[in-house]
Amino acid sequence: MKRITSARVSQLLFLAxxxxxxxxxxxxxxxEINAAVNAFFRAxxxxxxxxxxxxxxxxxxxFPGLLLLGLSALLGRFFCGxxxxxGTILDLxxxxxxxSAPLRFLRGNLKFWLLVPLxxxxxxxxxxxxxxxxxAILVRALALFFHxxxxxxxxxxxVTLYRVLxxxxxxxxxxxxxxxxxxxxxxxTFYPLAFxxxxxxxxxxxxxxxxxxxxxxxxxxxGTLLGLAARLSPFVRVPARLCPDCGSCRDLCPTSFDRExxxxxxxxxCMECQLRCxxxxxxxxxxxxxxxxxPLLPGRRVLLGGLISGFFLAxxxxxxxxxxxxxxxxxxxxxxxxxxxxxxxRCGECMKVCLRSALYPAVLQAGVEGIYTPQVIPRLGxxxxxxxxxxxxxxxxxxxxxxxxxxxxxxxxxAVFDKNHCLPFAKKENCIVCEExxxxxxxxxxxxxxxxxxxxxxxxxxxxxxxxxxxxxGCGICEHVCPLEGKAGIEVFAVKDRSPLREGQGDAPAGxxxxxxxxx
Amino acid sequence: MDRRAFIxxxxxxxxxxxxxxxxxxxxxxxxxxxxxxRDYGRxxxxxxxxxxxxxxxxxxxxxxxxxxxxxxDRTPAQxxxxxxxxxxxxxxxxxAAGAKRVKVFDRTCNDERxxxxxxxISDALKGLRNVELKFIENERFRTVKIANATVLKEWxxxxxxxxxxxFINVPVAKHHGLTRLTLGLKNVMGVxxxxxxxxxxxxxEALADxxxxxxxxxxVIDATRILTDHGPQGGDLKDVKVLNTVIASTDIVAADAYxxxxxxxxxxxxxxxxxAHRRGLGEMNLNRVRVLKA
Lengths: 520, 294
Prior knowledge:
By secondary structure, chain A is mainly α. Helix content of chain A is about 40%, strand content about 10%.
C-alpha cells in the first residue's frame, strides 16, 4: 500500500468529484442542473484547442481549458498526476496488474501521430478530439455502458424482490427510491457503441500490463498536449538525472524515469521521487527558463505528416448514406450540421442527461466522421417539450444552452405521415394518439372529420390527421407514441431549414383551414 | 305448478336476476355533488361531504388509491392535470377518515418525473405522512381477464389500483381530440399497462371494459378550471376556463355526464359516456340523477 500523498488525496478528491458530477448530470426535479460533469470538459485543454481550431471563434466556455494549459506551461503536467480521473483509475488498478516489458512500438512519436492529426482535422472542420480525449473516453464508457449496466442490475434486483416478496417489498421502497433517484439512470436504456466505448476503456486498463501509465505517457493526446506545455515550465527537478549511487527513481516514477534523464513532458508531478528519495536529495525548484531536454516540438516530419493526415482524416470519411441522412435528427437548437461537427466533443453527456432517452450516439448515420455524435431516435425516445438539459450540459455549446421558451421553438425535424401505415388512412380506424400527445399548444398535428363506410356497412366518422408544418418542431413524441407495432405511421424527418417556429406558436400559418386535405 | 315448471322458472329467474338486482340498486337514485368556491381544497371537501363525507368510503385501516390525472408536463394553470389543491384535500380527507395508507400515482404520458413536479402535486403532498406519491413500476401490472368484455378480453392493469380498498378517481375535466372530453371514465386509462394507444380504435367500448373491472368507488372531477380546446394537453391559457367547480359522485357515469354540461355539451354527445351507460356502469340521464349543490 502506497503512502497517502497530497497528490493521491487530490486524485481521489477529483475522482470523487468527477463521479458525483457524472451522477448529477441528470434531471433531479428542477429545470436547471447547477453542476454537471461538463466542468471537466470545459477545463480540458484538448477540447479547448480543437474547439478553437475547428470553430475558429472564441468562446468563454473553453476558457478554463486555456487556463489549465497556461498553468501547465507554468507548473507542468500536474493535471495528469493530480486531477485526471482516468489517470487516477489507472493508478488505483495498476498495482494489481503484473507487468511485462513495455511495448516498443508505443514509444517515440506515436503520441504525436495521434495528437497532431487530431488537431489538424479540427483545423479542417471535423472535431475528433473527443474520440481520444481521456475524459470523454471515461464519460462514454460510464454513460453508455457501465452506468446503464449498474441501473439494469439494480432494477433487476428490485423486480426480483417483487417476485419473491410481493407487496412486502414496500418496506424497502424508501431505500430503493434513493438509489433510483440519486444513483442509477432513471430509465433503462441500451446504447449503440456501448461495446466499443467499454472496450476502449478496458483496453486502456489492459495497456497497464506493459508499463505503468502506458496510455498516459505514450498515447493520450491530452497528456501529450499538456506535455508540450510542460516543457516551458520553469520548474525543474533536481537532480535531473538518475543518481549513479541510487537509481530508486527508476522504480518510484510512474512515467518517465526508465531513461537516465527525467522526461519533463512525461513527468506528472506525482512527487513520489521527492517524497521517497532515500537520501532526501530530490527537489522541484524554479530555475527561471528551463533547459528542456530534447527539442520542444517533435520533428518536422511528424508535424507535416500529422497536418496532412489530419487533412485526410477530415476528408476521407465524409460519405453519408442519404437514406440515413434523412433520419439524422440532431438535438434541439442544432441548426447547422457543419457547425455542429466543429463543436461537438462527442462526450456523451447529452445522451446521459436526456430525459426521455431520445439521444443516441451515431454509429454510421452521420457517416464515419460523425461517429459518437448525438442523434435523436424518436421511436426510442422523444425530445421533452419543456426540457433543456442537453443544452445545459453540452461542454462546448454545440447544443446551445437555450431558455425554455426558445428551445420549444427550435426545429429538430418535421413529422410526416405514412399513409400506408397510419391507421385512419390505411385501415379506416380512428386513432389520433399523435395529435393527443403533440405538445404544441395549438397542435402541430390536427385532424379533420371524414364520413366513411366500414366494410360491414356502418357509417362512421374518421379523424384523418395532418401535420401543420409551420408549428411542428420535430420533437418526435408523435412517432414515439404511435401505437403501431414496429414502424410508426408518423415519422420525423430531418430538414435543412431549421429556423425556429414563430413566436407565440399559437398562430396557425395562413392557408390552414380545417377540412382542407394537406395531401390533396 | 309442477316440478318441471318450477325448475324452468328458477332457471329463467337466475338468468334475469343479475339484471334485476342491478335495476333494483339503480332505483336508488345516483347522486352528484357539486361544490363551488375559489378555495379548491374547501370546494373538494364540500363536494365530498355532500355525499356523506369521506368516512362513507374510507374505513379505518383502509388502503386508498387516489388517481389524479397528472399525465402531462404542464402547470396547474394550464388545466391539463388535476389541480394539486383538489388532490391534497382528498388525501387529507382520506387520512382523516382513518386510511392506513394513501397511494397517489398515474401512468404519465410525458416524463413522469417532470409531470409529478410540474403538476404541483409533488409539492402539495410533500411532508404528509402515510402518503406515497409513487411512480408506476412495470412489474406491478397484472394481466386481468375481463368478463363480458366487448373489445378487451384481457388487459394489463396496475396491481396497486386493483388491490386498493378504495379507489378514488380524480380527473380534470378537459377537451380531448378523439373522445371530445376526457373525464372520469377515461382517467382510468392511467392504470392501464401495455400499448394503451392501440385501444383508441374502439375507445368507447375499451373504456367500458376497463371500467367494469376497475371500479371507482368515488369519482371527483376537478372542474376548478377546464381545458376547452387542444386537449388533452393544452398549453395555451386562452383555452382554459375557470369554473371553480368540483364534482363528486359514486356514480362515475353520472359524474361524467354532469361535467359534460359544463362544456355546453350533452352527455349523449360523448360516446364514452354513452357506451358506459349502455353497459350498465352508471346513469347518464341527468333527469334521473339527484344533483346536490353547495
